Amino acid sequence: MTTTSTVSAPPDRSLVRRVTWATWSGWGLDGFTNQMFPLALGGIIATLGLTTAQGGLATSSALIASAVGGVVGGRLADRFGRVQVLVLVISAYALFTGLTATAQNFEQLLIWRTLEGFFFGAEWPVGAALMAEYAAPERRGRALAWIQSAWAVGWGLANLAYALSHAWLPETVAWRVMFAVGVLPAVVALLIRRNLRDVPNARVQRQPRQRGAFGELFAPGLRKCTVLGTLFGATGLASTYALQTWIPLYLKEERGLSVSSTALYIWFMIVGNWLGYVLGGHVHDRIGRRWAFTLFYLGTAISGFLFMAVSVQALWYNLLLAAVVGFFVSAQASGKGALFTELFPARVRGTGAGITYNVGRGVAAFSPALIGWASDGIGLGGAIVAVLLVCTVLTVLFIWLLPETKGRVLD
């Protein structure tokens, strides 16, 4: 099979802006719907009569499905184009978000969360490949980081929905309303995606006897990047999930905070999260991927340990620390869009990014379930800290085994 696109002039600025905001809106929707689940988890457990372990399993099932979705979405984007696949993915993602609100038992919840996770996973590599191909090499880190900053905005809207719904409705009803509202941002994202097209200036040729995408990714030339990138993605995301999935329930159960107090902590984390995305991209472009990831993952581990394991009663200190945790979590995440697209040539870029990020996400999905299981023995805070510290050591090791890709020109 031979696929060819011809070289053309660089896209006009209005098209670049439309691509930027379309991709931004997609990640914002991801942040909105994905972060609703940890916030709603307490109400879901109470309504459906679940155990903490079942809550962790529901979280993990969506993340495992996202691994498959990421690979499938990336492969379809390489085969049929980025924009076309994005529209399909976001439509399905919104549908299953809405259906989550109808769950009557654990089995139904598991089905809808798994299907939602599949399409959630497909969103990331497709959007990352599209934006990376439009961005200038010297600004790719900050461009992808800006796109990913939409996650913090979506998280903020989810927190607002959480606070308002729980102020007006009982906990057993509020979570259903939150997921029903999760359908609405998809309409905006779909409207913004109108009149977009894939980047026109790449030339990709595949000869009849050339390996397929998966064969090429695991051939000697790209195997190291594929395997190490996936391990890096897995351990890095496991540390992130250790914090983001369980912090709302941790604040409620071990700190004894009310809904409004928990929301206040989350607001400070969201502010730090947004700043981490925006500023982190500049750091990645300035000092390179290896040093930036090392700095930000160590910062995540230290601030997360202080937040969970060091008891200080002063409110200002805890709120400031929540913001610092949010900053480091997103600052390390801000470089992944650039790194995972820079590791691979155009013909397998979507598939490669889908494997490294989303298979990594699938492996990392065991982190919430492991924490839920271990919390019975060492407490929720202790389980979070243990997973966080182990994953940080492994993540820093893997990034130094990968090549430095700062400033790499994409084909």
Tell me about this structure.
Residues 19-406 form the Major facilitator superfamily (MFS) profile domain. It holds the Pfam family MFS_1. With 411 residues, this protein is an all-alpha fold. It has one domain (13-196, 211-401): Growth Hormone, Chain: A (Up-down Bundle). The chain contains 18 helices and no strands. Helix 5 runs antiparallel to helix 12, helix 10 (220-244) packs antiparallel against helix 18 (380-401) and helix 13 (289-309) packs antiparallel against helix 18 (380-401). It is globular and about 55 Å long. The two termini are 19 Å apart. The model is unreliable at 1-9 and 202-209 (pLDDT under 50).
Backbone shape: globular
Q: How can the largest sheet be summarized?
A: none
Calculate Rg over CA atoms. 20 Å
CATH class: Mainly Alpha
Number of domains: 1
- By CATH, the topology is Growth Hormone, Chain: A
Overall pLDDT level: 80
Overall strand count: 0
What is the chain-wise order of helices and strands? HHHHHHHHHHHHHHHHHH
Any idea what the CATH superfamily is called? MFS general substrate transporter like domains
Low-confidence stretches: 1-9, 202-209
CATH architecture assignment name: Up-down Bundle
The computed structural class is mainly alpha
Main location: membrane
GO molecular function: carboxylic acid transmembrane transporter activity
Organism: Saccharopolyspora kobensis
Keywords: Membrane, Transmembrane, Transmembrane helix
